[in-house]
Amino acid sequence: MPTSVHSAAVDRALADARTPGRRTVRIDGHDVAIAQPFPSPTDWRDRWVYFVLVDRFNNPAAPPRATWSEPFGGFQGGTIEGLRQRLDYLARLGVGAIWLSPVLQNCAEQDGSYHGYGIQHFLRVDPRFASDRSDPDGELRRLVDEAHARDMHVIMDVVLNHAGDVFGYVLDDGSVAADAPWRERGYAIRWRGADGKVVADWSDAPAAGDPRLSAHAAVWPDELRFNAAFRRQGKGGEAGGDFESLKEFVTSRPDVRSALIRCYQHAIAKWDVDGFRIDTLKYVEPDFALLFGNAMREFALEIGKRNFFTFGEVYDDEYKIAHFVGRRTNDGGDMVGVDAALDFPLFYRLPGVAKGLAPPTEIAEVFDLRKRVQKGVISSHGEAGRFFVTFLDNHESSPL
To answer: What is the per-residue pLDDT for 237?
Structure first.
């Protein structure tokens, strides 16, 4: 595995975050001083969370490329700045925390990754989400600071299971495709250049110093740019494999785990975010969920965020969720993992009850089962099931 060209910058960000201070933010013509790092809520259950799909929320520079009622799978042009301009509106709604869709840099020439879940560079903000493409990182920090100045917290959506479509598969007929059927023996690959096209002689990950390697080519940082970091077996499901063209990491590898942990500690340090929603959590190993949640909490505590909140997407039932949140009190070790999960078990029942199509006893049954399944599972907040993030609808269950 190569030595990262970003290591010094990451180290500086982590060191800066360990030095508490104050920042002055100008809001509506007056200055507001905020603590840096910004303190956590005393109890996240007092924070009403508003989900924002950044590309779809507000483009202050141009109208949408397609109307709201038409299916559309490309970038509409929403920006972080567009969201910042609507912070007063969100504050008037009573929003306590903003959950941002992923904003880290996706593959530059792939219009279909407007959702942000196909990350190519785990240390930078995607310029397409910025109105000022010369400083997307600064635009995100400005948003977070101004949200904090309005007493709103910010949750960043992060991805552990996979990167974007950073390489193509060499198929048996010699052609190269973005995705391939799953197979045990795996495939040869060709990494993608900055133009999104595969590079013929990049069958192995390009090394730092290759003149064709830019910040938009292959995958970054260097600690993740090596063939063995990826499964390379084509599309798969829970047992292992890509999400369509999104390439799955081998998250059982200690070096891959360390790299991802360091990337997201950097995100906390650089942008002062207050929590993480963790995409596709059930597709990584439960012990990595434990390790990751614990590592985020320890770093956040170190810099003064005493209640950093993590919740995972475990699109499944109570039994599966219990493997990925907190820790069982009868297990060895002292690590406590991810705090909670999106409440899909409640979501399965709640809309029907709210519409009068099912009796309220169905909701009682959800919580009765949870109490039994989560018995003996604790999080850093106490009983894990008390902090599940409830919702009636979201981007996982609706067309965008």
So the answer is: 80
307 close to 40: Cβ distance less than 8 angstroms = yes
Q: Please give the Cα distance from 167 to 381 (Å, whole number).
A: 40
Has residue 240 been placed in a domain? no
392: tokens are 């009636």
**Contact criterion met (CB below 8 Å) for 50 and 99:** yes
- SS3 of residue 277 by DSSP: strand
Is the separation of the CB atoms in 274 and 308 below 8 Å? yes
Residue 367 lies in a domain: yes
Structural domain for 325, as ranges? 7-162+250-387
Beta bridge partners of 50: 98
Q: What is the pLDDT of residue 22?
A: 95
Separation CA 123–CA 194 (nearest Å): 17
Listed as ranges, residues in the chain with pLDDT below 50 are 1-2, 399-400
CB neighbour list of residue 89: distance below 8 Å, 6 or more residues apart = none
| Distance (Å, whole) CA 372 – CA 361 | 17
Q: What is the pLDDT of residue 371?
A: 86
Q: What is the CATH number for 256?
A: 3.20.20.80
Residue 306 lies in a domain: yes
Predicted pLDDT of residue 136: 97
* DSSP character at residue 101: P
What is the pLDDT, as a whole number, of residue 340?
A: 92
pLDDT of the residue at 1: 47
- Is position 21 within any domain? yes
Please count the structural domains in the chain: 1
> For the chain, how far is it from start to end, CA to CA, in angstroms?
38
pLDDT at 69: 83
